[in-house]
């Protein structure tokens, strides 16, 4: 599946309930109020507008959460797009900065954890110790 169809399917699956919409309103209100606090602390004159915006989001979130549905869809669509790319970037970085050096280090040490080297062996099979054929032994395989 390519990126566009995967992102489209995630966006199409968005179906917010009232709790999701209420949470969005309250989170936006909290962020606006935090920004207002920082603006007031730094002496900016625009902090009352941030308080008003925060109050509007809190009011909408608590009283009319359905009004926030278009904003929720836009916000979650943006999150889906960002999440698609960021997860792949993080996994790529993790692979090249963690997994690859470990593999190269193990190769330098001559380790063969998967026991792939044949050396003097005739087969990859390992002999197991003789175990009884008691069916009760199969009840707990691990």
β-strand percent reads: under 5%
The tally of beta strands, per DSSP, is: 0
Radius of gyration: 28 Å
- The residue-averaged pLDDT reads 89
Main beta sheet: strand number and arrangement?
A: none
What separation lies between the terminal Cα atoms? 36 Å
Can you count the helices? 4
How is this structure best described in words?
The chain is mainly alpha-helical and 142 residues long. Helix content is 65%, strand content 0%. The chain has 4 helices and no strands. The longest helix is centred in the middle third of the chain and has 41 residues, at 69-109.
Short overview:
The protein is an all-alpha fold and 142 residues long. The chain has helices at 3-12, 18-42, 47-63, 69-109.
Features:
142 residues; mainly alpha; 0% strand
Summarize the helices and strands and which ones pair or pack:
Elements: H1 3-12, H2 18-42, H3 47-63, H4 69-109
